[in-house]
Amino acid sequence: MSDTLSAKITLDKDFVISAVDPRLFGGFIEHIGRAVYTGIYEPGHPAADPDGLRADVYELVRELDMPVTRYPGGNFVSGYNWEDGVGPRAQRPRRLDLAWRAVETNQFGTNEFIRWCRKANTAPLLAVNLGTRGADAAAALVEYCNHPGGSAWSDLRRAHGHAAPHGVKLWCLGNEMDGPWQMGHRSAGLYGQAAASAAHMMKRVDPTIELVVCGSSHRKMRTFGAWELEVLEHTYDLVDYLSLHTYYGDHEHDLPGFLAKPDTMSDFIDETAALCDAVAARRHATRRMMLSFDEWNVWYHSNAQDERVTPWAVAPPLVEDVYTAADALVVGGMLITLLNHADRVKVACIAQTVNVIGPIMTRPGGPAWRQTIFYPFQQASRFGRGVVLRQLVESPTYDAKERAGVPYLKSACVWQPADQTLTVFALNRSLDQSLALAVDLRAFPTLALKEWVTLRYADLDACNTADQPNTVTPQTRTGATVTREGLSAVLGPASWNVIRLERPT
Ligand code: AHR
Fold first, then answer.
1. CATH 3.20.20.80 domain span(s) along the chain
2. Tens digit of pLDDT for each residue in 121-133?
3. What is the average pLDDT score of the chain?
4. Could you tell me whether strands 241-248 and 290-298 are parallel, antiparallel, or unpaired per DSSP bridges?
5. Would you say residue 445 has pLDDT above 90?
6. Has 295 been annotated as catalytic?
7. How confident is the model at residue 1 (pLDDT cuts 50, 70, 90)?
8. Percent of the chain with pLDDT over 70
9. CA distances to 17, 176, 219 from 272, in Å
């Protein structure tokens, strides 16, 4: 076996997948565990601002540059009365949150979230409760948020101190309604009808909003496929996006298989797009349904620990995965998958943002820090905006347990016409061999190397913690060359790479 593998990418500026919708780099804050309380909101914390919002946390969220953030769930939303979370705090009820078997104090609600969004430089993506509630409560929330005034719900918002409408553009019609774990779970037909009624009424209140209807909670759902076809039969003309969710883990300690999972995510997107197109064909529709991948991430480290959580606590530590260097590679691979599907996926939300399977962790009363997965997300968000190029990739492959022919190289290339930069995101999935990458730059003859940043840590189980927050961080590398023919770089084993080329001034 040779020590170094070789792979090649050929690009052409005219061969384009799509412009990237910046909302591909969205986040998610749910009322679960410590995402809200002691995550983004902690009055009395030394870094809390006068609104009780942790400035140390929203500064880190700004580093991630998330154009949208989904809220308030997740499973939580399917039992949530949004009215409980607005108005004078002293009068807000404490409720049992049946989704996570915790006590919800409602000290943080819609208006506090909108205020946080402004500070975190993100836009709200609100989900409505289609589990235990329906079209009426959903339309009332749109009226509360978006109607200027002169009606009961909009005047209530004004009375709560928000004279200007919040202008929430993007809305989810429930959450994971295909899942038996969901409050108010129902069949595709019943959900499709409920979503259609809600969509109709919500768009009557504000015709400028965009709506996401629930697709499958993951690809292995027994109803995957049939669910999409039926839900879209009811809602195709009323909604703008269909959702899909996925989480991956390395339960079997099979790293090659874990690193191959982003390719399964790719299949899931292709299959979901095909289902949408099948419905379009049956309806003779010319409009193509776009996708919202509004929950995706690695999630498995905390599973066992969560079994032991005592119910009915306020903001218990739940779903607090501590991410490893290996997880950062998988998250990088998932980001590459999203970029390469920028023609269909217009919204995506890493789930979640803080403490709960999040790139950012906090200690109550203590510091906030960046998990390993923070870095690939930040780099993709910063440099992955532009036009994704169609690549011709030649790469050696390996066979994982559940998938044969996995290319060692996983890559996405983004051209930014405005500043004439080309960014190559490249994952070397070999655990023990370097990979000599050649990128044929015939369409970009005048580009020069700007920087090569890599995330590679020999101990793939290494993590960042409160006490050692900088164990796994990106490093600048040298040794890449750019000639008229192309770019050459030898990617280390098990490494995530961001190679940026620019037009010299
Ligand atoms: O993100 C955690 C949970 O995962 C969400 O509440 C739910 O939608 C999904 O199952």
1. 21-383
2. 999 999 999 999 9
3. 97
4. parallel
5. no
6. yes
7. low
8. 100
9. 18, 15, 9
Q: What is the DSSP letter of 312?
A: T
Q: Cβ distance 104 to 77 under 8 Å?
A: no
Return the ligand 1 atom nearest residue 76 CA.
Answer: 6
181: left (phi over 0), alpha (psi -120 to 50) or beta: alpha
Give yes or no for residue 176 CB within 6 A of ligand 1.
yes
163 CA to middle of ligand 1, Å?
33
Ligand 1 atom at minimal distance to the Cα of residue 217: 10
| Residue-level pLDDT at 188 | 98
pTM of the model: 0.98
Whole-number Å distance between alpha carbons of 333 and 428: 10
What's the CA-to-centroid distance between 74 and ligand 1, angstroms? Answer: 5
- Residue 241's contacts (CB-CB under 8 Å, 6 or more residues apart) are 210, 211, 212, 213, 289, 290, 291, 292, 346, 347
Q: Tell me which of 175, 185, 219, 292 to substitute to probe ligand 1's pocket, judged by most ligand atoms within 8 Å of the beta carbon.
A: 175
Amino acid identity for residue 180 in this structure = P
In whole angstroms, how far apart are CA 437 and each of 322, 386, 394, 449, 492?
31, 22, 10, 14, 10
Ligand 1 in reach of 73 Cβ (< 6 A)? yes
Q: Backbone phi, then psi, for 504, in 5-degree steps? A: -65, 145
Q: Which fold has domain 4-13+389-502?
A: Immunoglobulin-like (2.60.40)
**Ligand 1 center to 319 CA (angstroms):** 10
Pick from 31, 173, 176 the residue to mutate for probing ligand 1's pocket: most ligand atoms within 8 Å of its CB.
176
Q: How confident is the model at residue 2 (pLDDT cuts 50, 70, 90)?
A: low
Atom of ligand 1 nearest to the CA of 247: 4
Cα–Cα distance for residue pair 231/177, rounded to 1 Å: 10
pLDDT in tens, 279-333: 999 999 999 999 999 999 999 999 999 999 999 999 999 999 999 999 999 999 9
Residue at 197: amino acid letter: S
Q: Does domain 21-383 have CATH number 3.40.1390.20?
A: no
Convert the pLDDT of each residue in 249-260 to its tens digit: 999 999 999 999
Catalytic residue among 30, 176, 230, 320: 176
Report which of 121, 219, 217, 117 is spatially closest to residue 168, judged by C-alpha positions: 117
DSSP state of 288: P
Q: Give start-end residues of each CATH 2.60.40.1180 domain in the chain.
A: 4-13+389-502
